[in-house]
Design brief:
- The chain is α/β, with parallel strands linked by helices.
- The chain contains 14 helices and 13 strands.
- A seven-stranded mixed beta sheet has the order 1-12-9-13-6-2-3.
């Protein structure tokens, strides 16, 4: 501990020494060339004052309010000027990341917002506002492993990466993702799949107020029935996490859902698959629909949270040890859906944050249709989704 503090003090002294030398050199050069006068005149003077106050607040305050020697001030204020030493000490004392509370709450609130692949106006990213259907990957896309091993090809044909996050060839290694075994144990009749809804109040163009069977909750019920009929024991959790005191509030939906979901899994240790079923939100002129089996069917989108943003990097308090498993699940589902029903799926959407995908390795977040789809189109989509799940999960 003392060594770290001494190191921090040395670094601070070195920094101040460099600044002092720079200032003296500037002064010497400015004596003849008037560089100093220009350097300290407006707007440069304003910039210097801002830097001094922002990065050396102790110096700024002390210089204006009391006398001090440079050596005394540096020794006393080193930790306050650049909090490297105290940061190292805190890390060593607590073993945890000290995160800013406002940043933490902001990130949780953003995580709880709609996971829609749309811009601020509800228009599909890369799409047209008044389109009737989304252009999705279809039969013409080469899904051979040779092609999928090409990172640029994989990314361009199967993924949409949100502008707030980033990925890499190491993370989207198709060969590794497709090699992961997604099969469930079918030797027992105990529950294998849990379906729930972080956003339970999402409805459709012809949803009936007060009739849950016509909302995303009803789609969860129908998907549960379909999977049970296929011999995949499934539980549907109907908990509501986006209503607070009767008002729609999604700001804490994921936080509220997590402990309840974990409790169900604790009570049912046989469950291997977790599905958070949503519907998307798009511009009113956008209709996420395709034709499958001769029926108008809502399109779906698989969604992955990477617990990483460009602004914050890896988010420690949203750590997910199962990111690769989550990515493997969605990619295998995407490829199987394309094989069975080309055009049924939109590109997999990658975004920052966690979205409770750290609970189980085989976790799937599904954006099925949107508010502009009909209930019938959604039910048709659940039939295709159940078929795809059956093909990926069962031996």
């Amino acid at each position: 501990m003392e060594k770290r503090k001494r190191l921090s003090t040395i670094l601070m002294l070195a920094t101040m020494g460099v600044l002092l030398i720079y200032g003296l050199v500037s002064w010497k050069e400015g004596a003849d060339s008037e560089a100093l006068r220009r350097f300290t005149s407006s707007p440069n003077k304003m910039l210097l004052d801002h830097v001094e106050k922002a990065y050396f607040p102790g110096f700024s305050y002390a210089a204006k309010n009391r006398r001090f020697s440079a050596g005394e001030w540096v020794a006393e204020q080193a930790m306050h000027m650049i909090p490297l030493g105290s940061y190292v000490a805190e890390k060593e004392d607590t073993g945890t990341d000290i995160e800013d509370k406002e940043t933490y709450e902001m990130i949780l609130a953003k995580q709880a917002a709609d996971e829609n692949a749309v811009d601020e106006n509800g228009n599909l990213i890369g799409g047209e506002e008044e389109q009737e259907a989304v252009e999705t990957s279809g039969a013409s896309i080469d899904t051979s492993l040779e092609k999928l091993k090409n990172y640029e090809y994989l990314l361009g044909n199967f993924y949409t990466v949100d502008s707030t996050t980033m990925t890499s060839p190491e993370e989207l290694d198709a060969e590794a993702l497709l090699a992961k075994d997604m099969k469930i144990d079918t030797s027992t009749k105990e529950p294998k799949v849990l379906i729930y809804h972080t956003h339970s109040q999402e409805g459709f163009v012809d949803s009936v107020e007060g009739d849950d069977s016509t909302t995303i909750m009803g789609m969860g019920t129908y998907l549960t029935e379909l999977l049970n009929e296929r011999g995949i024991p499934t539980i549907h959790h109907e908990g509501v996490y986006d209503l607070i005191d009767g008002n729609l509030d999604r700001s804490k939906a994921y936080d509220l859902a997590e402990p309840q979901v974990r409790k169900i899994l604790e009570d049912n240790p046989s469950i291997e698959v977790l599905i958070d079923l949503h519907r998307d939100g798009v511009a009113e002129g956008t209709h996420l629909v395709t034709e499958a089996n001769g029926k108008q069917t809502a399109q779906i989108m698989f969604f992955n949270g990477l617990s990483r943003t460009k602004a914050n990097g890896d988010i420690a308090y949203l750590y997910n040890p199962y990111i690769q498993d989550n990515l493997a699940f969605s990619l295998q589902m995407q490829l199987k859906a394309m094989e069975l029903h080309p055009g049924f799926t939109r590109h997999i959407y990658l975004r920052g944050y966690c979205y409770n995908m750290n609970i189980l390795p085989k976790t799937l977040l599904v954006e099925a249709g949107a508010q502009t789809n009909t209930v019938e189109e959604m039910r048709n989509a659940m039939e295709l989704l159940a078929e795809t799940l059956d093909n990926v999960l069962t031996p």
